[in-house]
Amino acid sequence: MKFAVIVFPGSNCDQDMIWAVNLFDGMQATAVRHDERSLMGYDGVLLPGGFSYGDYLRCGAIARFAPIMTEVVRFAQEGKPVFGTCNGFQMLTELGLLPGGLRKNESLKFISKVVPIVVETNKHPFTNQYQAKATIELPIAHGEGNYYCDEETLAELEANNQILFRYADKVNGSVANIAGISNLAGNVVGMMPHPERAVEALLGSTDGRPFFESMLTNFVKESNHVK
């Protein structure tokens, strides 16, 4: 299964994402420029972290209008897997593919550290290789990771099990400590933590591996063997 990692001016986590995905047999990731207009030959989309277009206006606000985004929206509407981490999560909310939005951290400071994350559900295509309610450790690196939505949207997210990850502690002011969510269909996921930076012991944690193993199990039918 071939994933397109979309690279924007200011992206800085695209190679991390490509490296992480390519560790798994059955999945292949390659870079696709923001100004391309076709995703022919790809089966899924990954939006990496970074500072697309310098984070001018709002994080992800300009990236939302990149030519390739028409294809990203099409993939989402067709039920293909679309995942965004950090700046990618911000893009998905700007596109309207995920509800809510990301605001400046409550502290008004950039946060870069490893934090404990609670896996809220393992009954989801992106999380079913985790234990439900497990506490894992993933790195974060953001200045605008404070997730916000109104009370009605929060109630819907809760009722439909769309909240996949929460911060175990108060980190950035996010509503209900939300760290990652899914769309109702389950094929679009955004999260501020970086699972792609936690796939090898050398990096300090392998807690990101089950995230990609879940993708492998659910979206790649021909192989579930991990290198």
Describe the protein.
The chain has 5 helices and 11 strands; from the N terminus they run βαββαβαββββαβββα. It is α/β, with parallel strands linked by helices and 227 residues long. The longest helix has 11 residues. It starts with a strand and ends in an 8-residue tail after the last helix. Helix content is 20%, strand content 25%.
Q: SSE order in H/E notation?
A: EHEEHEHEEEEHEEEH
Strand line-up of the largest beta sheet:
2-1-3-4-11-10-9-6-7
Overall body shape: globular
Strand percent estimate: 25-35%
Please bin the fraction of helical residues: 10-25%
Total beta strands: 11
Average residue pLDDT:
95
Please identify the structural class as seen in this structure: alpha/beta
Question: What does this entry show, briefly?
Answer:
The protein has 5 helices and 11 strands.
Name the features.
9-stranded mixed beta sheet; 227 residues; alpha/beta; disordered C terminus
Ordered list of secondary-structure elements with their pairings:
Blueprint: E1 2-7, H1 14-21, E2 28-33, E3 44-47, H2 69-77, E4 82-85, H3 87-95, E5 101-103, E6 111-119, E7 135-142, E8 146-148, H4 151-159, E9 163-167, E10 178-182, E11 188-191, H5 209-219
Parallel strand pairs: 1-2, 1-3, 3-4, 4-11
Antiparallel strand pairs: 5-8, 6-7, 6-9, 9-10, 10-11
